[in-house]
Amino acid sequence: MPSLIDIRRRVRAVKSTQQITKAMKMIAAARLRRAQERIINARPFAQQMSRVLNSLASRVDPSAHPLLAQPVEAPDVPALVIVITADRGLAGSFNTNVIKATNAFVREHPHLPITLALIGRKARDFFRRRNFTVRHEAVGIFSKLTLDDAQHIAKVAVDDFVAGKVSSVYLIYNEFKSVMVQRVAVEKLLPIPRLEEEQTPGQGQAPQVDYLYEPEPVKILADLIPRHIDVQIYRALMESAASEHAARMTAMDTATRNASEMIDQLTLYMNKVRQAAITREIIEVVSGAQAL
């Protein structure tokens, strides 16, 4: 049976841990508010831009831009997968879910070689110890996330795709739904997906609309498509940042409640041990008095 001193020391340790988790929860809540505002403001523009580019890709000749062309699949040309995790832990299953989704993506495409672009220290540390080809790494960008960070990642993906070093580019990240819900998203970034339903309109669908372009489509796409890639990667980074703060806030709230329950249990156990010690001392005094 542990002594009262050991129990008191453990209670103090749990209280200290509870203060840390409570402070981390408050910090995550403050950061989440700013990150949530950023992603809510940026999401409509990114989604509308994606719809426009997907629709435009189904109307123009794929040879109009290199990022629209469907590359010839070859067994030795890998796919680039951009994996976005956090730099720190203590966020529940936030990082684990992305890593599991990446491993599942690899298992679902056994005949497709994979090369990775790892964003975040957790992804880098995990996949560096495994037998994966790593094309690009970026850590420490979430402390002050800017569009330049997304443009640097996009440049690596675009250059490799245009040069034929990769056959396609995918994004795997946590999409922010709410404070309690974050969903792992797997999205194809390159080549630009085409809207098949607009290519072959079926019964009851409106006929495909054609547009007149000024200037010509090649010049429009040359400026619009690279910007689209930057925006989509930047949106994914902001989604991941907001999801990380939400997951950490939830995890620290749970840890704080668990610490409170543990303190109550230890306090109750300490009182029982102290009462037993007092009762034993009283019995010893009474027994000694009777012996005299």
Give your account of this protein's structure.
With 292 residues, the protein is of the alpha/beta class. The protein is 59% helix and 12% strand. It has a domain of 194 residues: 3-Layer(aba) Sandwich (Pyruvate Kinase, Chain: A, domain 1), CATH 3.40.1380.10. The protein has a 5-stranded mixed β-sheet, sandwiched between helices. The radius of gyration is 28 Å and the shape is elongated. The two termini are 32 Å apart.
Architecture blueprint of SSEs:
Blueprint: H1 4-57, E1 79-84, H2 94-108, E2 114-119, H3 121-128, E3 133-138, H4 147-162, E4 169-176, E5 182-190, H5 196-199, H6 217-291
Parallel strand pairs: 1-2, 1-4, 2-3
Antiparallel strand pairs: 4-5
Tell me the Rg in angstroms: 28 Å
Q: Could you list the spans in which at least 5 consecutive residues all have pLDDT below 50? A: 197-202
Q: Can you tell me the CATH architecture of the domain at 42-194 and 210-250?
A: 3-Layer(aba) Sandwich
CATH class of the domain at 42-194 and 210-250: Alpha Beta
Shape: elongated
- Average residue-wise pLDDT: 84
Strand order of the largest sheet: 3-2-1-4-5
CATH topology of the domain at 42-194 and 210-250: Pyruvate Kinase, Chain: A, domain 1
Coarse structural class: alpha/beta
- What is the CA–CA distance across the termini? 32 Å
Percent of residues in helices: 55-70%
What proportion strand? Answer: 5-15%
Let me know the number of strands: 5
CATH superfamily of the domain at 42-194 and 210-250: ATP synthase, F1 complex, gamma subunit
Note the main sheet.
5 strands, mixed
